[in-house]
Design a protein that fits this description.
homodimer, mainly alpha, two-stranded antiparallel sheet, about 5% strand
Chain lengths: ~200, ~200
């Protein structure tokens, strides 16, 4: 099979991501979001919010990273961000196996490049990966606000749990971190997000 | 409203593209494709098929272009690629009005930049726009093959009509153009695509 045939096969396999459903409810169509349209939304956010990444961040790399970051869900499915540790560990193994299979559809040099993007996203060490992860955390928060609570209400998620994820946003972009922290405050005030059983949220 | 608030408003508005349905049927989920996941697929194709763009093509610009190219459909809806001329003219006016409204949600400098990307895609003069348009034409062809004819069968589209679109693919990428021409031959051979009433396809 020549390079182009391999690339087209990969692109065809990627089509299946449109059938992988996430927990997030969409305000407009009133259905769950799929991982392909979620990935588009993150890529659009990367381009739109580029100026809030730390200086020198390679936004084209961030965009490529968010475009491929969820492809492993074709095999592994999507796991809710607040799943427990045992589920997370099982999911990580399934995603690694999926990455081995799916990126290997590409010509070897390109397979290595795309796998590198995926590993980088998972490892969260570079400014690009940290910014990409920040967008991946911020997007479902915006969606939950849009539908009046969404998965927060559905799963009884409390403000301190959300603030745990906000730390990942701050880590990728101080400006988006501040914005997300304000969102949590507003969601609590508006009754969309409950305080933990103890009462106050962590500072 | 500060810059970030404007950008987040734009990103929130963009969410509505997930509810805009295209004609293309998806093999996996067995439903029509929406314009947001279509845009993701094109962006992934831009990154994957980059080497088939003419030398010097700015792939980050192609990616940004395909990410925003369908946002106007939030107001204007999607028009089938084989719609008649009168419908196309009406659609163009509706899309321009939509571009005026939607990109203006952004801070002025960014609104101009995004509008520039959209105009460039529509005008098809730069190598980046031509490659982006080639991807936009190739993707539904791949989808139709995947579902055994799809919109070609549904709307009685013939091989010469598809070859008219293949010229746009050749214009953006000779390699993808050859590939698309082979696809049409194969689709005719496999009975997925009919010959025109006259018989043979144009050379």
């Amino acid at each position: 099979m020549d390079r182009l045939d391999q690339q087209i096969r990969f692109v065809g396999e990627a089509d299946l991501l449109k059938g992988v459903l996430r927990q997030t409810m969409l305000a407009g169509p009133g259905r769950r979001e799929n991982s392909a349209e979620h990935s588009w939304h993150l890529a659009l956010m990367a381009v739109t919010l580029a100026e809030h990444a730390p200086p020198g961040t390679d936004i084209a790399r961030v965009t490529a990273m968010v475009l491929v970051h969820d492809l492993v869900e074709i095999d592994a499915g999507d796991l809710f961000v607040y799943a427990d540790e045992e589920q997370q560990t099982r999911q990580e193994a399934a995603e690694r196996a999926a990455a081995d299979r799916i990126f290997a559809l590409l010509p070897p040099d390109q397979a290595a490049g795309f796998r590198g993007l995926w590993d980088e996203f998972e490892e969260r060490r570079t400014p690009e990966a940290r910014f990409a992860r920040a967008l991946d955390r911020l997007q479902p928060m915006l969606a939950n606000l849009e539908v009046g609570g969404g998965t927060w209400k559905e799963h009884g998620i409390t403000a301190d749990q959300v603030l745990g994820k906000v730390r990942l946003i701050e880590d990728g972009s101080p400006a988006l971190g501040r914005f997300a922290r304000d969102l949590v405050d507003r969601a609590v005030r508006d009754g969309l997000l409950a305080l933990p059983p103890g009462g106050a949220t962590a500072p």
